[in-house]
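Batch job 17 of 40 flagged for manual review because the log was empty.
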Amino acid sequence: MPFPEETINSIAQFLPHGGEQAPAPSEEQQREYSVEELALAANTTVRNIRAYQDRGVLPPPTLRGRKGIYNNQHLSRLRLVSNLLERGYTLSSIRELLDAMEQGIGLSEVLGMESAINSPWGNEAPINLPMSEMIAMFGTKLTPAAIKKAADLDLFSINGAQLRVTSMNTLKVSQELCATGIPLEELLDILAMMRGKVQPVADSFVKLVAEHVLEPYGEQPLPPREEFPKIAELVWRLRPMAQVVVDAELGRAMDQAANRFLADTLESILKQLPKE
């Protein structure tokens, strides 16, 4: 999930300018604020400003006597911090990002790794589906209990006569299986069980990367700059590699399950066939 353009622009102004001399600040950029005025302009509170300063994500003001004077750089930094907090980042991770920029790590490198980690790992995008179409897909099998189970599994959310479906592929497979006579509620029970089994596998897979790729950097807050592209590439490659492993193991398990549960039935059918 890449940073929105507004955030990128906010971050960019804190990046080092290399050997270039920064342009002189305009009159608007030199605008000054008291802490109360800054809080109002940034749509935050004085208490938050003090906390951000204590946590090192907001530079201290210039002191004139006993009064702290802030400027538009403080305002931009405040807006950046608020934007990142709204996106789920902690103050500690924001501090690391800002430290990285001050150390000269480029914006594209930071965002490249952030995008690799936070981009959706699935290929499906949610779609809107009329409730009438869902009813047409499943008919009488779409009971209130089945609807609740599907909603609890986050397969869709209900918004009036519309559904926000997170995985149309899952719905289509369920529809095809239901058409053979399999109850929808039992299919959803299997999906719930599978979720419980798959998540620990995913956790372990990603933990391997974290332990063996990132931990060697020890107590450094961030990997060395030259390692950012390599780590981002590895995370991108992890996606198809994980899918291949899961597909292979599921195929093996399906072979074994078919032999256990269907072999006897198939043998009985073959015995009843007329002999030539």
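Reviewer: the log was empty due to a logging misconfiguration, but the result itself is present. DSSP finds eleven helices and six strands in the chain. Unflagging and moving on to job 18.
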